[in-house]
Amino acid sequence: MPDRPAAVAPVVVDTSRSPEARLRPVPLNAIRLTDKFWKPRRELNRNTTLKAQYLHLEKTGRLDNFRRVAGDFDGDFQGIYFNDSDVYKWLEGASWALATDQDAELAEMVASVVSLIERAQEADGYLNTYFALERGNQRWTNLRDMHELYCAGHLFQAAVAHSRVTGSERLLAVAQRFADLICATFGSRQGQIEGAPGHPEIEMGLVELARATGESRYLDQAAYFLGARGRGLIGGRAYHQDHVPFREADRLTGHAVRALYLSAGAADIVAELGDSELRRALNRLWDRMVSRQMYVTGAVGARHEGEAIGADFELPNARAYAETCAGIANVMWAWRMLQITGEAAYTDVMERALYNAALPGISLDGTTYFYVNPLAQDGAAEPGSGVHQREPWFGCACCPPNIARTIAQMPGYLYSVSDDLIWLHTYVANEASLSLPNGLKVDLVQRTRYPWSGQIIVEMLTPGEYGLNVRIPDWCQGGDLGDPPTLSINNAPCRGTVVPGQYATVRRTWAVGDSVCIQLPMNVRRVKAHPHILENTGRIALMRGPLVYCLESADHKGIDLRDVRIPRDASFETTFRKDLLGGIQVIQTNGFVEEPAGEWRTSAYQCAPSELRRNRRPTELTAIPYYAWANRGAGAMQVWIRED
């Protein structure tokens, strides 16, 4: 690996020197959001979410665990053995938030946590507050279950973020001392421990640490941990991703977050080492996940038992696990595959998961969270009923700081660059100043109301010869979409074919003020499930643009949403409601409520269901974006709706 670059730039995943990556990153501070969707969310994340989470870290003893090791707190370790990881994820998110906005209060919180972490590190570089002090002799004795290396991975990612944002190497030095110890401890040489962590994460952390420091040993260590799996060194279970060597795997299985984190780490290794066998495995796993194991929302994880990925087409609605962390992990994996290949198929999944699998994990006020994300809920909102609703924190609190760091990273997912090309991935109104690998610096402005509107106007502020790669989402094809997507330059249609699911290349000599207009159809789409997903037989899901919609009981008082039917020939109207759920585009249509009657009241089964009566009445239906449900109290919800 080349020497560490002298310049420090706040890039989330640094593929700027990765030999096998096609795309190069854009720093967070090169982009200024101006939109009304993501900009307010990032401001809320910085002003409210991260500061409230810091208080939770205090109240739950997570920070006291570090003080205890540093000698400032006289008490027992508090909470779960992997609680350190929540502190590291919070620190990473807070660092990325400070990359674009000054905030003295948040900066002081960050500085205090960095100081705590420094003082909790042991003389040989080891750092884990659960295994410190009285448990020091238990280090590395249970790699399968105890998450030491998982926590280390999150420390490394936080340290890289802090260094890239602040220019300080204090936390980076802590991370390097710990990484050096890990490299000396684990491997196949005599005297080393052979094994891998039961929860992947360190693979991504080590690769990013190698990118930040230029130390190739960290990359080699990540590759070692990946290769050590599937040999039974930690028990051989799919839950721990130890059931088969990664290069031989033909499907994702076991714990969903672990499977996706491991895949993201493997993609990082491919970007650096170009392992063709590993790349073929990633392609295999990706294709099967997208075609058979992923929810319409981009979520992954069908089973509560083991927080696991299910069998092919096992995608239940009400019993979906679809952990928020798994949705975030899908974004992370897709982004890394996109940087390697430049293929829009990965951007399509990344965007779908970002809006519909990650974003639902946090409330609109930024203070409560979902751990799991079902696609249906039938119960009424009654005290003590156990209805799924958002919570202010969890005993296992992996999801809250994970969604906070994802929102903080969001500007980094908008653009990439390569040679003399600017890649536009997902659309958000912003002002950007982009440095191309060929040395040209390009300023541009993007104007759009996406995801509510499909019109995107990109105004070029820098003259010269360079290109734009404009993504045309795959959701622009199929169904009754109306007009096809179009691309024009200075109001003149662009030559060539605009193909959904691909990037359209516009290469020309630009003048200041030249504009590109992208027009994406925003018709409501009826989505049907694969026939093998039996629960959704005869049902449709509604999508508009990148968003999945749902029905919620708050808009349909007195109606059991399981009885709702949408006619096959129903038409849809959409209206922007600035007064509803922070401002959303709602879908409205006329449907029916068809309630079981007569014999169904006394028995769940009848011999001649075609002859049995149902009460049928018309009703008006209002669908809201799935990410916004459960912000008006707990209640019923349906993504998949019966088609009449």
Structure description:
By secondary structure, the protein is of the alpha+beta class. It folds into three domains: 28-374 and 390-413, Glycosyltransferase (Alpha/alpha barrel); 415-519, Sandwich (Maltose phosphorylase, domain 3), CATH 2.60.420; 524-643, no CATH class. The chain is built from 13 helices and 23 strands. The chain has helices spanning 38-59, 62-70, 84-98, 104-120, 148-166, 170-185, 202-213, 216-227, 256-273, 276-293, 324-341, 344-358, 399-409, and strands at residues 31-33, 254-255, 308-309, 376-377, 415-418, 421-424, 430-435, 441-448, 455-460, 464-472, 486-489, 492-493, 502-510, 515-519, 524-527, 539-544, 547-552, 564-566, 573-577, 584-596, 614-625, 637-638, 641-643. A seven-stranded antiparallel sheet has the order 1-7-8-9-14-11-12, with no helix packed on it. A six-stranded mixed β-barrel has the order 16-17-21-20-18-23. A four-stranded mixed sheet has the order 5-6-10-13. Helix 2 packs across helix 4 (104-120) and helix 9 runs antiparallel to helix 10 (276-293). The longest helix has 22 residues, at 38-59.
Poorly predicted runs of 5 or more residues: none
Taken from the alpha-carbon principal axes, the silhouette is globular
By secondary-structure content and strand pairing, the structural class works out as: alpha+beta
Can you tell me the CATH class of the largest domain?
Mainly Alpha
Ends distance: 60 Å
Largest sheet: 7 strands, antiparallel
Number of strands: 23
* Share in helix: 25-40%
Q: What proportion strand?
A: 15-25%
Radius of gyration: 25 Å
Overall pLDDT: 95
Helical run tally: 13
CATH architecture of the largest domain: Alpha/alpha barrel
User: Could you name the CATH topology of the largest domain?
Assistant: Glycosyltransferase
